[in-house]
Amino acid sequence: xxxxxxxxxxxxxxxxxxxxxxxxxxxxxxxxxxxxxxxxxxxxxxxxxxxxxxxxxxxxxxxxxxxxxxxxxxxxxxxxxxxxxxxxxxxxxxxxxxxxxxxxxxxxxxxxxxxxxxxxxxxxxxxxxxxxxxxxxxxxxxxxxxxxxxxxxxxxxxxxxxxxxxxxxxxxxxxxxxxxxxxxxxxxxxxxxxxxxxxxxxxxxxxxxxxxxxxxxxxxxxxxxxxxxxxxxxxxxxxxxxxxxxxxxxxxxxxxxxxxxxxxxxxxxxxxxxxxxxxxxxxxxxxxxxxxxxxxxxxxxxxxxxxxxxxxxxxxxxx
Length: 319
Hints:
By secondary structure, the protein is of the alpha/beta class. The protein has one domain (13-318): Vaccinia Virus protein VP39 (Rossmann fold, 3-Layer(aba) Sandwich). It has helices at residues 65-68, 85-105, 120-125, 140-148, 183-193, 210-215, 233-242, 256-272, 277-283, 286-301, and strands spanning 13-14, 26-32, 43-48, 54-56, 59-60, 109-114, 131-136, 152-154, 168-174, 194-205, 229-230, 245-251, 307-314. It is globular and about 50 Å long.
């Protein structure tokens, strides 16, 4: 395996209980190293014996945030904006799918994207007439890049945002909820930020997907140590209901190719004991994407693909 980054400080860990039901009763689900940024050590997921939620315990503390999200973390990668036209068009296609989902529920309004990274989605939404968009991103470089695109992006963590209550028509979290220290508290805060009929859209890895069965511990949903939670359809529904939302629909419509290939990349790294950038980049190339598109379309239709998107509305009692 490639050596992990040299850390200025050791990662500090904390013991936690189940965020969904508060139980301390759990059993080990799996233990694995970091196959993405190659941080040293191993990390453990447990499953709650009471409600079935899978979560990391012990997990890195808030003081270790910068250590587990180094500057080369792939979600902060800005190279896509300068790479080939083919790759940018392919990326744009996925962004457009998300935009179309938003427009299905609102033709105009205010939108907040939590964990917006380099602002790709927000930049696409800002092109739509009648939309006022904002973002929150804790990483300094990623948020600075988003602002360079002319976007209103605040550099802070979600728990520290200070927007007015009832301000937003739609709030999005694309692959963010699994990274949260306290999903319950965050989702309650989001309900306060939404208008009375506001919409929350969450995408998160689906524990019951085919990828998880095929790749086992190498599935991208087990992106340790950055994924603190891994949700099934049942546990994400329970979480949303507990925090004041009513479910509208669950969609599987984007990101299945990227998730599958990321898992394949992790599996190969474990077997080869190293990583080959050019070889791995081939998995994400346009020819591979086009060739495998029918397969991933079928997975989406069967609701067996990895990225699960839940659309819900602020419940009446929270208005």
